[in-house]
Amino acid sequence: MRISQASAGVLASLAELQVAAGQVFRNVGMPEVAQNDVDMADLEARQAAGQVWIGEYEGRIAGFVTASIVDGRAHIEQVSCAPDLAGQGIGRRLMEHVEVTGRHRGMSATTLTTFRDVPWNAPYYRRLGYRELVLQEIGPELQDILSAEGAYPGIDATKRCAMIKPNRWGS
Which residues span the domain enclosing 86? Predict the structure, then answer.
């Protein structure tokens, strides 16, 4: 898989991919998550800032990741993969790209926010080396993200968590 920064010309395709990937939340009783619209203005701003990477596999966009800096750490905002390519390691490779980029920029760790009990969320991220942050470890910017996410319609804030993975050389 080839990973590169997203161009403005692919953003509509990324939005479609994110919506398609989100449909799996219906299978775990979370239709509100599946119905979330993509904020195109936010996606455009992130792309313009160089915060969106795509993974291309067999001549097509297989997935994408958006990332930023939160509390001085690399932070994965969104990772989405084409549903028909689920389980191929695409999301993992995109996340690793963010981790390596953060490490090369001198950041001590990579963070993300996710659902605690959705199998392809926190349980999966634990297998990739992430651990849940306790409240005292969550910085102010990350807390703001968690609070905003918990305010989305149909989202139970108690089921959300922040996770961290140290950026170690050779990991």
Answer: 2-166
Question: ∠34-29-31 over CA atoms, to 5°?
Answer: 25
User: For the purposes of burial, counting CB atoms within 10 Å of the CB of 111, is it exposed (0-12), middle (13-18) or buried (19 or more)?
Assistant: buried
pTM of the entire predicted model? 0.93
For the stretch 10-42, pLDDT in tens is 999 999 999 999 999 999 988 888 887 899 999
| DSSP H stretches of helix in the chain | 11-22, 31-34, 40-48, 90-104, 122-127, 140-150
Q: What is the mean pLDDT of the chain?
A: 94
Would residue 171 count as lying in a domain?
A: no
Close Cβ partners of 51 (under 8 Å, ≥ 6 residues apart): 66, 67, 68, 77
pLDDT in tens, 133-146: 999 999 999 999 99
| Cα end-to-end span (Å), the chain | 19
Contact 75, 68 (CB under 8 A): yes
- How many domains does the chain divide into? 1
Name the CA dihedral angle for 97, 102, 106, 111, rounded to a multiple of 10 degrees. -130
pLDDT tens-place string over residues 145-162 = 999 998 888 788 999 999
